[in-house]
Amino acid sequence: MCVLVVLLPGGGGVGVAGARAADADTDVRDLTSDQLQPGTLAELTSPSLFAERKVVVVRNAQDLSADSIKDVKAYLGSPAEEITLVLLHAGGAKGKGLLDAARKAGAREVACPKMTKPADRLAFVRGEFRTLGRSATPEACQALVDSIGSDLRELASAVTQLAADIDGTIDEAVVGRYYTGRAEASSFTVADRAVEGRAAEALEALRWSLSTGVAPVLITSALAQGVRAIGKLSSARGGRPADLARELGMPPWKIDRVRQQMRGWTPDGVSVALRAVAEADAGVKGGGDDPEYALEKAVVTIAQAARSRGRE
Known about the structure:
The protein has about 300 residues and is α/β, with parallel strands linked by helices. The protein has 15 helices and 5 strands. The longest helix is centred in the C-terminal third of the chain and has 21 residues.
């Protein structure tokens, strides 16, 4: 568990975001434990002629040397008014004395448990939007998690950017405009639209992906995963998402998504789509003259297969 300890003698705000909200010109110094040598903290926290607001972030505080810990403890006994000290500690017994000293000095402590589940990251994104006083649709939050991945700093940065740039409610289309150029996000967007039977949108996403440099093999891989997920879930016994997730090796949130996507599919449709993916894969790996055409043909075939139930 990561622990964030913040000393705010001047009050108001927390950490870098809080300090910059109070003063956009805040000077931020971000240091690793090996960069905080004896005497460094005293230099960084010395009085300024301009009385500027400053934030000093120390990462991996549990790894500080004994001499540096003495410097930090001394500073905690007499902190500067315009300076915020942020200590990031991994938890555990190592360096616990430093945490105890910070707590005794009146620091604010924020627990930061590691987020391993997609649902946790989704809740994190929603919370970031709420903190900024902005409204985002559930689809937009999910699209952002799908696009950015598991890095919380990148997710928080993306939320901040969207909140600053967009007026009104932030929806899935906005997230798509900003982040669909990422290779993983755009390839899976092609697959999602195809298995949903939305051929025109899938082709549009495909052309955008190719124009932004996404490798064709990533797209065929995403198409294969999308069709296989449909086949695996359609042949599985009914049950709760958590139970199916364990049985099929998918996260629960993906079970819910695939259930929505599989409504028009039949077993024959899955077979047709898998053959189309195999042909496209061969085409983009040198078996054909035009990889883009191979992908377009596969996307159209998959989208048609997704509507096969209605043609029975």
